[in-house]
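#lab-general

N.A. 3:47 PM
ok so I finally got the sequence cleaned up, no stray characters, all 744 residues accounted for. can someone with queue access submit it? mine expired

B.Y. 3:52 PM
send it over

N.A. 3:53 PM
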Amino acid sequence: KKKLHLSKIYSFRCRKPGVKGGEDDHSQIGGPGFSRVVYCNEPNGQEAGLRNYADNYVRTTKYTALSFFPKSLFEQFRRVANFYFLVTGILSFTALAPYSASSAIIPLIIVIGITMVKEGIEDWRRKQQDIEINNRKVKVHRGEGIFELTPWKDLKVGDIVRVEKDEFFPADLVLLSSSYEDDVCYVETMNLDGETNLKLKQALEVTSVMNSDSDAGSFKAVVKCEDPNANLYSFVGSMEYDSQQHPLSPQQLLLRDSKLRNTDHVYAAVIFTGHDTKVIQNSTDPPSKRSNVEKKMDRIIYLLFGLLFVMAFVGSVYFGIVTRRDVDPGHERWYLRPEKATVFFDPRRATVAAIYHFLTVMLLYGYLIPISLYVSIEIVKVLQSSFINQDVEMYYEETDKPAHARTSNLNEELGQVDTILSDKTGTLTCNSMEFIKCSIAGIAYGQGITDVERAMAERMAGGSPSIVKKSKKDGVVGGSNARKPSSPLVKGYNFQDERIVNGSWVKELHSDAVQKFFRLLAVCHTAIPDVDEASGKVTYEAESPDEAAFVIAARELGFEFFKRTQTSVFIREMDLASGRRVERVYSLLNVLEFSSARKRMSVVVRDEDGKLLVLSKGADSVMFERLSKKEGSDYEAETRDHVNEYADEGLRTLILAYRELAEDEYEAFNDKFSRAKNSVSADRDALIDEAAEEIEKDLILLGATAVEDKLQQGVPECIDKLAQAGIKLWVLTGDKMETAINIG
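B.Y. 4:20 PM
back already:
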């Protein structure tokens, strides 16, 4: 078990509320929409049996054994030609037909049969995938602290499961404890929302007693929560444990199809199973998809049918007129013997004869509508999907994944794409950040050349990679001696500047600002260090690549974060007075988490001298306005210029700032912040933000960081080919405008 205890680090930590407060905030539990009751560790109990919740078997197929025949037939007769030939086939059994019934019915049966077989094979492949997923194994508590490997499909609501590192969660679970002592775990939700950044989850403090398999034997709790719904980002519930009510939030919810990362194992209770899980609630039944080509074929069939109708109608009207004349002596067609004619040629019932003639002609000319056209298209589609599956050019070797066409219904749509809507980070880029430049106390550091700089230089200088830039204070920061881009020796770190590296920063005019800058990078984060006992090398497990790059950069430049405890962060850094590396301890009091709304992250720490410090990093759009007007913005103009330059070079930037806190100011903040964290009302986040606003002000500017997220290999060439094909590409990005333009 990793000796970490992080309970005071995370702002989302739910403390034990008073019973009265818990009841008030959870008054909706048990009402409409909040009626689910789960008896943890008692899936087969009498109370659980009465609930009759869904099992964990998941089906994504379009058909079942019972529905295949009627549903597939319905799909076939949605096609206009098939429906037409069904009608003509029925009429071929009457005396109207000028040919035998078998000649009309057999081709129709063959055509529909071939298409149904194709549909059946494709759905069987979906069934095979369902079988593989439903038979995945997970460790489930079977009593007396014994866990057995059990197929996912056999899970029941209330089961206690143990999920190992890099395994998918088999159902929607409530986190009880993890291999980290403070019961945090990292979760990858790529299958749910496409995000590659890891999410941090944390169990309730009261369930942290489950440290081993044997502890599960005596665990009993009742969870009351919302009914199954499709909202991935909300969860309202409470856990009754030891006769106390404890509020549950999305921070304790582990969703099916997300993956456990950077955590050895977790224990969790099953809350929603099978089609009650949020990911399945978000999915829809496989739709009956019809391509544009097929719809166009239907329109052509309508046109042909219209032509056939006109031909039959004109011919039948003329036939009726001529047949009526057979009544008059001398005008009759004697060879038809009208006096003995049946209804088909009876001149006394010429109108009826014309109608019958119309139907007969419709049958006779029916081959104007090509029944084999659909079969030909189906064969082409099947062959196309086979080619897609076997295309070596579409095979991705790193993950051993070929292209896979799950259905052949829409193959031709790929050739009709005219617009692509794309995310940038992790889609067009590698989402692997490298610390490459920074601005400290108004001075720019870092001499690397980014991909965007190189591309711009080649455009402007006809291929020359030399880049010369002027900065107000620094003179030349590049030029022919600028460092050529290369693969970094340390992942996440690609910084080079002789003024900073190898401890040279102590000679800088603003060495105190440099020290505070990298100290902030080493302290202001939620990363977890992992020390290799054999080599002593420190690696980090972080929520995002940006955060990992900052901690790695601080380590490489002499500010090594190497240990974290319940309330402290330990770093090794250079002591300016003695010139030696020393260990320093920073008491970690609060973390104000980063969010897309706040666009910043802060920590409140106490250093060894007893000073209270607020350390903040965030986007320039929110940080500059929070600087102190008196002493916090000495380098603001220069830093803004550097940030704009970095943005032009395609780099992601963050502003770093700090301030000292008075004891009474901190006490007032901490009281308000604690009350906001322990609230489980709907406006909890707003209360936390309001408390954070009170100390994230009057900051003193230190500088800015710049990290590069390189484009994936072949992206420019791919976009160029798409453009040549007339395909428009729209990219959604959170970058600054300058960065987005230059990356484009």
